[in-house]
Amino acid sequence: MTAEREEQVLRRIDRARRRKARVREERITLAHGAGGKATHTLIEAVFLEAFDNPLLAPLEDQAVCPAGGARLAFTTDSYVVSPLFFPGGDIGDLAVNGTVNDLAMCGARPLYLSAGFILEEGFPVADLTRVAGSMARAAEAAGVRIVTGDTKVVERGKADGVYVNTAGVGVVEHHFTLGAGRARPGDAVLVSGPVGDHGTTVMLARGELGIESDLVSDTAPLAAPVAALLAACGDGVRCLRDATRGGVATVLNEIARASDVAVVLDESAVPVRDEVRGAAELLGIDPLYIACEGRMVVVVDGACAESAVAALRLRPPGERAAVVGRVVAEPAALVLVRTEFGGTRILDVLIGDPLPRIC
């Protein structure tokens, strides 16, 4: 591609991204819940339009709210994973860890959770007991308490066994400001471990591919490694995001757009397990788009990169943390991948998700 042609393409991408969000579909589709472009459009055109306020506007995974002399982090999430039980976890510990991690991504210390259950008539009590026990163990491991909740039952066939909603509150005890809009040229980009484990595990657990594997979900709490990272790097930490729906690719695009910078990713540096890579190749999916539930993307000052990796590797599940890219000034709001063959490609956000119902 000539330099002139490349510039034309970049201008078109920029114009498209700056248009006001508008939902073109008349009805909700699965793509609207997948974490990709359709989700972002729905959020911006419907929810942000209706609820816009300074705490919501950054569209982080949580809101940091002033409360007297303290700063509280508040988040909520709903879980609709299928199947409910999968190698390495289930909908219960997924709900706890996912909410704890959303709080941790602003550096908060998670404290309290709520738990809401939408149960389908006929759902086995033994399975509900198993889910509740899993949540209790996950909460104890993460150092939080489930202190309030709600239960609703709907008619048979009106749900999918059980849906779980959790909200979480934590306290922000540091003075740093973390967010997707804080990345700067010269920063380093890290991942805290192998990517794509959770989404691939859930996909294989559905049995549709007929593939047997020892792969397990990476669902885990991240508050402890975040605390270690902040202790090691202080305000050199720019941004933290757990790579759930849409995977690492979507997170990096959110950071690039919010900070108006470019992210250059080294494909060969990204840790991916062989089982994940093999399943992704079979399905024609890039592992960078597959969801994780115990991995985070970290942006730090380039001078802190080695300290950040060392801090993460001392705390499970960060033993395979790695520097995978860097932040540069141009082309703004894009993510580029340096491929293993020496080429470069644009890593864009997908419209939907090739693996629905994974969280």
N- to C-terminal distance = 39 Å
Q: What is the count of DSSP helices, taking H or I runs of 4+ residues? A: 9
Spatial extent as radius of gyration = 20 Å
- Sketch the topology as an H/E string, one letter per element: HHEEEEHEHEEEHHEHEHEHEEE
Overall mean confidence score, pLDDT: 92
What are the segments in which pLDDT stays under 50 over at least 5 consecutive residues? none
Shape: globular
How does the major sheet shape up? 7 strands, mixed
Helicity, as a percent range: 25-40%
Produce the secondary structure layout.
Layout (H helix, E strand, L loop, with lengths): L2 H16 L18 H15 L11 E5 L2 E10 L5 E2 L2 E2 H14 L4 E12 L4 H18 L2 E10 L7 E10 L16 E4 L5 H9 L17 H11 L3 E6 L4 H13 L2 E5 L7 H10 L12 E5 L4 H9 L8 E7 L6 E4 L5 E3 L13
Parallel strand pairs: 5-6, 10-13
Antiparallel strand pairs: 1-2, 2-7, 3-4, 5-7, 8-11, 8-12, 9-11, 10-12, 13-14
Helix pairs in contact: 3-4, 6-9
Notable features of this structure?
alpha+beta; 5-stranded mixed β-sheet; 9 helices; 32% helix; 24% strand
Describe this structure in words.
- By secondary structure, the protein is an alpha+beta fold.
- It is 32% helix and 24% strand.
- The strands form 3 sheets. It has a 7-stranded mixed sheet with strand order 9-11-8-12-10-13-14. A 5-stranded mixed sheet has the order 1-2-7-5-6, with helices on one face.
- It is globular.
- The mean pLDDT is 92.
